[in-house]
Amino acid sequence: MGNQAKDILSSRFVLFSCEGTAEGVVVQVLYDNDLLIVPRERVVKDALIVDRPYTRKRKASEIANDYFSMNYETAGAEGLAVARIVDSNAPKFEFPKRRQNGTKVLNFVTRPEIEMLVIHAEGAYRDWGNATRRDRQLRPNEFCKQRLGLGKIKEKDFLEEYWDNGEKLVKAIKAHAETSKRKNEELLLVDLLK
Q: What percent of the chain has pLDDT over 70?
């Protein structure tokens, strides 16, 4: 990870914006097991759900409306950063200039889908590679359902039970980072780990 991103994560309050259920479960497990590079006391909690260390809000305007009224320059912090957990380099995500408030935005990409973590945890990465050579349209979640028998791969209860061990999740994140073709300056989930 670039030093700039590391500095932002360690010097600011951080709001995690998660694209989907699986991304939220990953952030929750990393938070619960104190595995994030972000100090626990600087993780911004959801505005509606008590003790949830992420929001499902993904629009810049909604995040600004719900989170920008707080003072994030306290306890030695330099302001707010929004860490977006997304499966692709999504279109520009910018706060209106008059409302930006010095907030930094970092995108952590889980390309092609976050279910790749399960494929690594199951030791099925080689099988995944073989399957995608035969079927270029095969999605990781479909592979998990069809080939690994994990039909509930998108359900929160299943994912919470599956990732109940933070160490298992960290191993999968690191394995995925090793096999990912990181684009220049791209941030991955591994960059969130201590």
A: 97
